[in-house]
Amino acid sequence: AQSVTQLGSHVSVSEGALVLLRCNYSSSVPPYLFWYVQYPNQGLQLLLKYTSAATLVKGINGFEAEFKKSETSFHLTKPSAHMSDAAEYFCAVSDNTDKLIFGTGTRLQVFP
Amino acid sequence: DAGVIQSPRHEVTEMGQEVTLRCKPISGHNSLFWYRQTMMRGLELLIYFNNNVPIDDSGMPEDRFSAKMPNASFSTLKIQPSEPRDSAVYFCASAGQMNTEAFFGQGTRLTVV
Q: What is the pLDDT of residue A79?
């Protein structure tokens, strides 16, 4: 069965600083990996996804993630945080079915 | 397309009452998911359908929960009888082809008192 582990339930950065949100996955087959963002009182929306093409995936709002098979990781980064990036971020994995399993989420705070 | 539509947005009910949450997926999508989100347990997959057929309901907490998808454009999640521990935000999501993006609704915030 596949699963994801998000290290750090809360991350705080200053505006303009690097954002790094960690995600490690477990899957018995080549995984499909996703990052979603949730703003307060909203549903989840897709930031980016890895589907076995390029290992470095670029998403919306300047975010990107790199798939590293040797480390079973799919960390999310953004070079320069903006106040509007404050939200909760979820890593998710699916195998060759439709079942999408989410991590526990990381709440990002951005300070001025 | 209006996206995934859930109703109601908020529901407050008394313990023991029946609660029905509704979802209209995006037209043309053939997968539908029900998730529950709480502070303690995060985002849990309750059940998902493919082509209106329940594929995996292993996340449904107990027999008080049931879900149906009578056609491609409508699904319900029912809790009977409801309990305070069912209080959570319930999300519906739909997806097109396998392993593509899941689109989420705005959620239904359920409070059982």
A: 97
Portion 20-79 of A in contact with B at CB < 8 A: 32, 34, 36, 41-46, 49, 51
Span B35-63, pLDDT tens digits: 999 988 889 999 999 999 999 999 998 89
* pLDDT tens figures, A63-76: 999 999 999 999 99
* Residue in B closest to A91 by C-alpha: B43
Please indicate whether, in this complex, the C-beta atoms of B91 and A94 are within 8 angstroms of each other: no
Distance from CA of B17 to the nearest CA of A (A): 25
Assess contact for B112 and B14: CB atoms under 8 A.
yes
